Amino acid sequence: MDIVFERRGDGPPLVLLHGIGHRRQGWEPVMDRLARERDVIAVDLPGFGASPPLPDGTPYTVDAVLAVMAELFDDLGVVRPHIAGNSLGGLLSLEAAERGLVSSATVLSPAGFYTALELRWAIGVLRASRLGARTPQPVITTLARSARLSRAMFGMIYGHPDRLGRHALAGDARALRGAVGFEPTYRAGRRVRFTGTCADVPVTIGWGTRDRLLLPIQALRAQQRLPDARFVWLPDCGHVPMGDDPERVAALLLEGSSTPLVGGPLHAVPNIEQTPA
User: Fold this and answer.
1) DSSP alpha helices (H): ranges in 36-191?
2) What's the predicted TM-score (pTM) here?
3) Which SS3 state, helix, strand or coil, does residue 200 take?
4) Nearest CA to 104 among 220, 205, 29, 5?
5) What percent of the chain has pLDDT over 90?
6) Alpha helices in 133-276 (DSSP H)
């Protein structure tokens, strides 16, 4: 497949995978910081961003998408790169680690640790966001100039959407609206949960304390499933934390893709904001 990607920097390769309905540009707030020390490869997953959908008849399963990623690794000449992913990209990153395709995995609010009710909540929010994204593009760009209105439009996804800028937000809305892989990915993954251990690969998990999409209770399940992973709360960050706190997120990705990390106990963080499903 002709997967679209952006490659920047020099050093050990680090592949970046976005979430469902998002695009490679979601990593832009941290790209330059990472590229100072890594060969950064930000990917548009099949059916998202500028990448074409999977071939007709191919289900959007984890196996199918990871096969595409393995082919991309070969084409780029990278062997067991480091990988980082957000949401759906986090689940794919963990599965890649479980299968020995990567040297480390750093995941930000990864999918795969929800209950059926929590998944319905998340998909319901994203579908509502897709409907909102049908608003004419000039209107979205105008509304995004207001911090208050941008929070109303994008606050379920970002902790601080006003920090991203109106053009980035408008581009995200356009990508969500046009994501042909959205529904088939959801249908293929409704019953998918991460059940691996990633025993031989260092894993780092970051979770925004203001994540309203994949609620922080899921972070506790992730830590229980992967007790040897390093866990880090991302204070005041939402579901897509790269634009909320680029410095903190970039540092986490660099740490996670450097040396093996030893996990520790998960400590409670006060004032975690949760939205009931």
Assistant:
1) 62-76, 88-98, 116-132, 137-143, 147-154, 166-177, 182-189
2) 0.90
3) coil
4) 205
5) 76
6) 137-143, 147-154, 166-177, 182-189, 217-225, 246-256
